[in-house]
Amino acid sequence: MSRLFIRAPLAILADGAEGGIVVEDGVIVDCLPSGGQPEAPVDETFDASSHVVLPGLINTHHHFYQTLTRAHPEAIDKPLFPWLESLYPIWARLDPPSFRLSVRLALTELMLSGCTTAADHHYLFPGGLDDAIDIEAAEAEALGMRVTLTRGAMDLSRKDGGLPPDSVVQDRDVILQDAERLIGRYHDGATGAMTQIALAPCSPFSVTRELMMESAALADRHDCRLHTHLGETEDENAYCQEIFGCRPVDYLEEVGWLGPRTWLAHGIHFTTDECARLGRHKVGVCHCPTSNAVLASGFCPVNELKTAGSPVGLGVDGSASNDGSNLMEQVRHALMIGRLNYRSASAVTARDALAMATAGSAACLGRTDIGRIAPGLQADLALFTLDELRFSGAHDPIAALVLCGATRADRVMIRGEWRVVDGLPLGLDLARLRREHGAAAGRFT
């Protein structure tokens, strides 16, 4: 077990660690005050005097496959429902080779932005792509990325009153059997887990009540988490009122999802009372600021949710509604959109936005071993330099990352191992990945 001393950072997002941190066997074992030195010998020292050190950023909602359809002419400038209706037939052409490249590119893009843990919501299983989650697990392991892979699903097609076409939905029994298989093969509930599985029926307008209820029961049996889209648009509210005779949060309770096992994507159209209700039950919410802006869906009430007791994290959402996979950009967008929403320059601070992307996101995923820099936690770190012109003249290094628009980490550590060095992922040919992914995306015109 080697010991690494990350010494004297320019700034660090942790109290009492101004002198640096010591990492051993993938875990932070000591935080040192300014001028402090490790008590026990170290094997290596990294001079961090030019780096701002953050806990590794945590992405709590994504759709990796959508990297193949960014800025697609069929979907540009449309709100959610028409956007989905335009893209579903195109996404139905997904196959294993193109999907594998989409996953690899999304994970790499995230890692380069300082992300060390990513949750993907994959719910499309056209013929031949039955092992989509297995592909994701293999790609994440190869890159050394920590992941929560959600077994998404849709079993309510257009002919049944749902939104998706018949070609992209599955039978409920097939969905549940595969979910149980994936939990048995990949889900690790231990401290420091690299791969976890969650169950994620897609949305109220694409899954049946029965699938929601049986997924909740399965998650309870296996102690894994639940995830879905909720409260994203007024169209969704209207759909729930018409089909279920209630609002989305009421529906969530009816199907047994209103509890701390659940985290939701978007959470925009909640009333004040619904925010309080979600908070009482400790339901997490992933804020997706860029996607919400691109689709003009609305503003997530992040402060009301946090005040009520809900964990609030950050997500990039799909790369066809973002249209990127850069989590550090989401931190800045969360600040800007939050201030615009609340019409207050102090409503969301730089540190508030970073907290959503770290500790808040960890809480959404039910993890207490990541999201902060402290002894005993996993050594997941994102290190940024301030040597670009945009940072010249910045006086608060941590605030500068957000306010001046940092986009790329110089170094990224996951489980105590460097995965990005000098702004480049180790062991990966970026030019080749760009070329191969671009060629695969050409099939989705």
TrEMBL record:
Domain of life: Bacteria
Enzyme Commission no: 3.5.4.32
Keyword set, alphabetical order: Hydrolase
Annotated Amidohydrolase-related domain residues: 52-418
InterPro entries xref list: Amidohydro-rel, Metal-dep_hydrolase_composite, Metal_Hydrolase, MTA/SAH_deaminase
GO molecular function list: 8-oxoguanine deaminase activity
Family statement drawn from the similarity comment of this UniProt entry: Belongs to the metallo-dependent hydrolases superfamily. ATZ/TRZ family.
Protein name (record): 8-oxoguanine deaminase
Species per Swiss-Prot/TrEMBL record: Fulvimarina uroteuthidis
